[in-house]
Amino acid sequence: MKKNEYHTIEPSTSQYGSGKEVVVYAWGKYGNSSVLAGQNKKTYIEEFDSTELALKAFPNALALEGIAEAGNTFGHLPDAPDDDYISE
Fold first, then answer.
1. 63-87: per-residue pLDDT in tens?
2. Is residue 72 situated within a structural domain?
3. What is the pLDDT of residues 4-51, one digit of tens each?
């Protein structure tokens, strides 16, 4: 499986005001060593002033009008902490 399967261009939602219009994300899957193994992984790549500039840099990216969520689930994790990691 490829490290990054595809890219998306999404509206910037940074509350810290980078001033950029859109953000490019790479999508793939978490590896076997992760507690999220096999689930979607969304990785920040770069910000651009416009969708057009982002598409020039990432011509195969999918330009979205909204934010795509990874949709990860955590139901497979235990509800209680592992006793080995509790410090007294």
1. 999 988 888 887 777 777 766 665 5
2. no
3. 689 999 999 766 556 789 999 999 999 999 988 889 999 999 999 999
Does residue 22 contact residue 9 with C-beta atoms inside 8 Å? yes
Domain range for 18 is 6-67
* Domain total of the chain: 1
Whether 82 is in a domain gets the answer no
- Would you call 27 helix, strand, or coil by DSSP? strand
Count of Cβ atoms closer than 10 Å to residue 23 Cβ: 20
Upper half-sphere CA count for residue 29 (Cβ side, 13 Å): 8
The dihedrals phi and psi of 43, each to the nearest 5 degrees, come to: -120, 125
The pLDDT score that the predictor gives to residue 57 is 98
Residue type, 8: T
CA distance 4 to 29: 8
